[in-house]
Specification:
The protein is mainly α. It has a single domain (27-452), classed as Growth Hormone, Chain: A (Up-down Bundle), CATH 1.20.1250.20. The protein contains 16 helices and no strands. The protein has helices at 3-10, 18-23, 30-60, 66-90, 93-117, 120-152, 155-183, 189-218, 236-243, 245-275, 279-303, 305-334, 338-362, 369-401, 407-434, 437-441. The longest helix has 33 residues, at 120-152. It is globular and about 55 Å long. The relative contact order is 0.15. The model is unreliable at 1-10, 219-223 and 439-454 (pLDDT under 50).
Length: 454
């Protein structure tokens, strides 16, 4: 039996095993999905080991200083996109991914050393730098993963598989947050950071293996394999976002999501600072919230995401999160207390990771290859942090003007309504572009094709 007949047999529903019937993963896709799982598992485990540390450091550095930390994060995002664009232009995927991740690994080791040697006053300033750094780290390493995934899978595969692949991220997040919740009171911060660095190195190994098996699965031409540079301009990502109505609307989706997320984040941080004065208790609280989010998310990703997207379409799947946000902020308008805030945060983040996040990655599968890396990087990092800025400084302005607890929900509800309309438009446009996806995917660079993405 040759390779072609084996692939066809793997696609035969009569030969489908339990994994394909339950999780919609075909036999020939198993190696690619498996390495994708380990790749994102390692990244999210690393991040969620460090995330509660960031939250505690943000609180200890003063909630009033958080808007400035968000501003510093935006500046760092803008600066880092330039060398990243250069790497994407000059190096193949199998080289620029390890370089980027090992840069962050070296940073983690430096933070571990600094915290080990620092006194209490120095630790506050190190914590502020760490808050900014981890906010950059999170978006960049996860964005690079999804850049690779949308480059590997088609739009049809994305609708079917992205939720299941994202479950690997959730399991990693559960592992990382569980480790932090259990060890935060006994293991020093620098010790947790060393574990996070080791996990990131596993991600590098997984990314290399994924690149090899994915090229074999897709049988791509050499010009589109992970062994070839993408080329184009270093600044193409930003230029294409500005010129493309489709990418502008994708950016708007991210922007509105980020603004409303920041509103809710500040509410959670404010409540934690009042309810848990001890640093260890604050770290454990944030880790416990993360754990609850990730358990709920995992159930959604494993059993619902793929079916929801295929049954209702991209537009309605994307619209679920702004619709939930309208309802949630309406509840907070009348009951801005501990339980509603935490419950809304858990449900919203689970809805994002379980449904909205895998679905919005499908939006990029219909784009030319250069946009999947460069434009996606700009949207995932700079645009996302612009939303953080708008949300953070809106929160600061509300506090300065003493408008009271109802002001943020009043702002968030109409923002979420605009976001709802945007989500439905994106879903319809993606479906239209999916018909032309094979032609678009065949383009190594979209420099002469930007005007067609509208």
């Amino acid at each position: 039996m040759n390779a072609t007949s084996e692939l066809r047999e793997g696609d035969n529903p009569a030969n489908a095993g339990l994994i394909e019937r339950v999780f919609q993963v075909r036999r020939r896709e198993l190696p690619v999905v498996g390495w994708s799982w380990l790749y994102i598992f390692s990244i999210l485990s690393s991040y969620y080991v460090m995330r509660p540390i960031r939250e505690q450091m943000g609180v200890s550095g003063g909630i009033e200083n958080l808007p400035w930390l968000f501003t510093a994060t935006l500046v760092a995002m803008i600066l880092l996109n330039v060398p990243f664009g250069y790497l994407v232009r000059r190096l193949p995927r199998v080289r620029f991914i390890p370089i980027t991740y090992r840069f962050f690994t070296a940073n983690i080791l430096l933070f571990a050393l600094a915290l080990h040697l620092a006194n209490q006053e120095q630790a506050v300033w190190i914590g502020r730098f760490f808050f900014v750094w981890l906010s950059v780290f999170n978006l960049f390493v996860v964005s690079i993963f999804w850049q690779t995934i949308v480059d590997v899978f088609t739009s049809e595969q994305g609708k079917r598989l992205f939720g299941f692949i994202a479950a690997g991220a959730t399991i990693g997040a559960i592992a990382g947050s569980s480790a932090s919740a259990l060890l935060a009171r006994t293991v020093p911060t620098w010790g947790l950071l060393l574990g996070a660095a080791a996990l990131l190195e596993i991600a590098v190994f997984s990314a290399r293996r994924l690149s090899r098996v994915s090229d074999q699965l897709a049988q791509k031409p050499l010009a589109q394999s992970g062994e070839q540079p993408i080329g184009g301009s270093t600044f193409a990502g930003l230029l294409h976002v500005v010129k493309s109505p489709y990418l502008l609307n994708v950016s708007l989706f991210f922007l509105l999501f980020s603004i409303t997320s920041t509103f809710l984040y500040f509410e959670q941080v404010n409540i934690a600072a009042k309810a848990f004065p001890d640093r260890g208790a604050q770290t454990a609280f944030f880790a416990t919230v993360d754990l609850a989010v990730n358990v709920l998310t995992l159930l959604i990703q494993l059993f619902l995401t793929g079916r929801v997207v295929r049954l209702f379409g991209v537009g309605l799947a994307l619209a679920s999160l702004p619709l939930l946000s309208i309802v949630g902020f309406a509840v907070l308008l009348y009951a801005p207390t501990f339980v509603p805030v935490v419950a809304f945060q858990v449900l919203r983040r689970a809805g994002n990771f379980g449904i909205a996040r895998p679905t919005r990655e499908v939006l990029f599968t219909v784009l030319p290859r250069e946009d999947r890396y460069k434009s996606k990087s700009v949207i995932d990092t700079v645009v996302y942090r612009l939303g953080d800025q708008a949300g953070a400084w809106s929160y600061a302005l509300v506090g300065f003007l003493q408008w009271g607890a109802a002001a943020l929900p009043i702002l968030a509800i109409p923002i979420s309504a605009v976001w709802l309309v945007n989500a439905i438009w994106l879903g319809r446009r993606q479906e239209e572009m999916a018909a032309d996806a094979p032609a678009a995917a065949a383009l190594p660079s979209p420099s002469a094709k930007v005007a067609t993405i509208s």
